[in-house]
Amino acid sequence: MNLDKIFFAKFLKNAFSDTVKVRYWDGTEEKYGEGEAKFEIYINQDIPKKDIVRDPFLTLGEAYMSGALDFKGNIREVIESVYKNKESFLHKANVFSKLYKVLPNTIKKSKTDVQYHYDLGNDFYSLWLDKTMTYSCAYFKDENDSIYQAQVNKVDYILKKLNLKRDQRLLDIGCGWGELVIKAAKKYGVNALGITLSKEQFEKASEKVNENNLQGKVEIKLLDYRELVGKTDKFDRIVSVGMIEHSGRKNLPVYMESVKKMLNEGGVSLLHCITAQTEGEANEWIKKYIFPGGYIPSIRELVSLMADNDLHLVDAESLRLHYFKTLKCWAENFENNLDKIKKIKDDRFIRMWRLYLNACSASFHYGVVDIHQFLFTKGLNNELPMTRKYLYED
């Protein structure tokens, strides 16, 4: 066995929690672990070991994108096998992320980063999202809920938590394709403003507002929340779903300060975001190819910033397994529509996106990330219900 294969043998033995069979670039095969192999790994080209040692996330991610690395079996389960091994590299992202310089997320950079991900085309997203075009963690009231029903559930759940009243002013920071603000206006009679940095989302959300005849009740704007502070009347409710992860670590205080400035006294805000157990940058593959400028905040970072701004935490709920199931549904939809996706995206992009959806699903199932909904008020608010009962009533 040559030196490269000796390196891979040691690396793979320490990575997986299951037995694997590996076929190398020269056609030889090896099994690592006891008993029958659960997965087959194909190393189609000799991947430089110095690159793997330096950053296995980026190196192996790029190897899969190019076809130098491949798997036989469910890719999510392959990644879960690595996550279940607590000594594997997947639990050490912060160690490798320290190799890279983190640039500040200016308004200009934030716009560029968000458009990189969300302006891939409404035609692309519509192929694997549900018909509401909701691109965030769904809420499965029943394990048999379709992804569409679960997304409807999620929007309803958030709106209930906000305890909306007719004619209140609602701001949605990072409104996506507009489902939440449209539902809020139709069901609760609020006056809603949705803001996004994605041109494609802005155009589609504005179109949906017109289709629902909600002009005058719902407005969509293409701008950064930092551009809104001090330039509009204050809001009774502020919601943000899956946006703060794009802000960058240095802008977490800016976000909380901005929410405080834009909320009326006693106002209510809901923050729905991916969370980390401890502080640390995301791995470089995700930041380079999927979410440039992204940072997953820890729970204590967020709660501490709430306290610093006299924002009182009312409720915090983990939806980790809901996001596992959401991503699993998206990955299945992606594969089921592969023929259509191939008409608009090349093979490298498809492999990249497949890896992203499945790796994220695995990370919520067995990994190091969570997702929470935080409900908090500006100053004290004694008008919210004392129990959660209202959340579960139709």
UniProtKB/TrEMBL annotation:
Q: What class of enzyme is it?
A: transferase
Name under which the protein is recorded: Cyclopropane-fatty-acyl-phospholipid synthase
Q: Which domain of life is it from?
A: Bacteria
What SUPFAM superfamilies does the database record attribute to this sequence?
S-adenosyl-L-methionine-dependent methyltransferases
Q: Tell me the classification of the organism that encodes this protein.
A: Bacteria, Bacillati, Bacillota, Clostridia, Eubacteriales
Question: Which Pfam families does the UniProt record give?
Answer: CMAS (PF02353), DUF7884 (PF25371)
Protein's organism? Clostridium luticellarii
Write out the catalytic residues in the record: C360
Domain named DUF7884 is located at 7-93
Which InterPro entries does this chain map to?
Answer: CFA/CMAS, CMAS, DUF7884, SAM-dependent_MTases_sf
Q: Which residues form a coiled coil?
A: none
Keywords for the protein's UniProt record, in alphabetical order = Lipid metabolism, Methyltransferase, S-adenosyl-L-methionine, Transferase
Q: Say yes or no: keyword Acetylation present.
A: no
Q: Name one GO biological process term.
A: methylation
The UniProt similarity line reads: Belongs to the CFA/CMAS family.
Q: What is its EC number?
A: 2.1.1.79
- The portions of this protein that span the membrane are none
Instruction: Write out the GO MF terms.
Output: cyclopropane-fatty-acyl-phospholipid synthase activity
